[in-house]
Specification:
Blueprint lengths: L1 E3 L4 H11 L3 E4 L20 E4 L9 E3 L3 E5 L4 H6 L1 H6 L1 H8 L4 H6 L2 H7 L4 H7 L3 E4 L4 E3 H4 L8 E7 L8 E7 L10 E7 L8 E8 L2 E5 L1 H10 L5 H8 L5 H14 L4
Parallel strand pairs: 1-3, 2-3
Antiparallel strand pairs: 4-5, 5-8, 6-7, 6-8, 9-10, 10-11, 11-12
Helix pairs in contact: 9-10, 10-11
The protein binds flavin-adenine dinucleotide.
Length: 261
């Protein structure tokens, strides 16, 4: 097993580029281990790149405009942080439903986002999050998540609540009632008005087999049709963003939150 602890994020990104599809970034390691054939049986042909050696990527702070969340911050630390409660309460709500305490104490925000279907992904997308990469650039997270190979992510930032109009948001997670399995789908929604209804401006969803994405056709449909929207029209729009098995669930959730049921 190759385990490397790079001195800097730039070194980590260079290593990842050199090793190509044999490179694996490791943060909390809770997801990575699921793919191994046994608890101590890490594949020997992969290069594991430890991301937990840089304290600056495990911090949460605010600057003039943004709440900045280090990608390697543990999920439970994100959930309990006073600045997150003020500037991203929807993230605290989602984290309150994420796994058990043991997972939240080991797993990191970056690991959850880069897993591709984690609970925090839709939340950060509806909050228009940006991500800091190893070349020191901030990029829209929604665009970076579409890349074939995900780059090293160092921090996420979202606009402070006191630098924008009030946010009206919701988070839903649907799973099997009595089974210890990953959730079927997670959905985050954002409205431009306190009355909500069809002022829905942002929706994002993710599920096993369906990586996190904004539901752009649905957003466009609601923006154009307004109060003429129905459950059927929302379902048809959702079907352009999601597979049919998810469309049925997500369209009901969205229509319900918009007061259309
Ligand atoms: C029993 C159990 C229950 C769980 N329940 C839930 C749940 O309810 N909801 C939920 O959302 N998740 C759940 N998870 C998944 C868990 O939340 C995530 O595993 C955790 O957030 C991943 O973080 P990590 O730091 O351990 O990631 P890792 O396992 O270290 O990494 C995950 C992936 O992300 C990549 N990666 C990690 N950090 C970065 C980075 N900074 N930049 C680029 N790539 C990176 C890794 O290479 C890997 O591909 C559960 C997991 C377990 C084992």
């Amino acid at each position: 097993m190759h385990l490397i602890i790079p001195a800097t994020p730039a070194e980590a990104q260079t290593l990842a580029t050199q090793w190509g599809n044999k490179a694996v970034f490791v943060a909390g390691g809770t997801i990575i281990q699921q793919a191994w054939t046994g608890p101590r049986l890490a594949p020997t042909d992969q290069c594991f790149i430890n991301l937990m050696a840089w304290p600056e990527t495990q911090q949460i702070c605010v600057d003039d405009d943004y709440l900045v969340l280090g990608a390697q911050t543990r999920l439970e630390d994100v959930r309990n942080h006073p600045l997150v409660k003020i500037h991203a309460p929807l993230l605290c709500t989602a984290l309150g439903q994420l796994g058990a305490l043991g997972i939240r104490r080991i797993g990191t925000l970056g690991g959850n986002i880069c897993w591709g279907v984690g609970d925090t992904g839709p939340v950060l997308l509806v909050l228009d999050a940006q991500v800091l990469l190893a070349d020191d650039s901030w990029q829209p997270l929604v665009e970076v998540l579409q890349r074939h190979t995900l780059p090293l992510m160092l921090a996420f930032r979202i606009q402070r609540t006191d630098r924008q109009p009030p946010l009206h948001t919701a988070f839903e997670k649907v799973g099997y009632r009595a089974a210890f399995t990953p959730a079927r789908v997670r959905v985050a929604m954002r409205w431009s008005r306190a009355e909500r209804g069809t002022a829905l401006s942002h929706t994002a969803a993710g599920a096993p087999g369906t990586p996190i994405r904004r539901l752009r056709h649905l957003e466009q449909h609601i923006a154009q049709s307004g109060d003429a929207c129905t459950l059927a029209s929302i379902r048809a729009a959702c079907a352009q963003d999601l597979p049919m098995s998810l469309t049925l669930m997500v369209s009901r959730l969205v229509a319900g939150h918009c007061g259309l049921l």
